[in-house]
Amino acid sequence: MADEGNPKWEGKATAELKASTAEQIWPLIAEFCNLDKFFPTVDICYRKEGSPGDGCKIEWTFVSDPIQGLKLEDLVSLIHDSLQFMAKKMEEAVQGQS
């Protein structure tokens, strides 16, 4: 439960992968849904919806405690930019396999 005096930050970032199919991308991120196993400070990480063969869109949502010295907008921007970079690299990897 969030502390009333210290509300949680929430945000979302999405990336559309236009040059790749979902079947090509799912194998690259299958283990990402287990991120909390690699980073114990991540409370939960799971596939919210979708399955292999569905549309090719990645969505990250987050809830966190405020980060001292950072604005919420800065954190959202960092997460968005990171996801866009990751999506670009995944499409490049898939194109390199063909």
TrEMBL record:
Tell me the SUPFAM superfamilies matching this sequence.
Answer: Bet v1-like
Q: List the Gene3D superfamilies hit by this protein, alphabetically.
A: 3.30.530.20
Cited PANTHER family: LACHRYMATORY-FACTOR SYNTHASE, OS05G0202300 PROTEIN
Q: Please report the name of this protein according to its UniProt entry.
A: Lachrymatory factor synthase
**Origin species:** Hibiscus trionum (Flower of an hour)
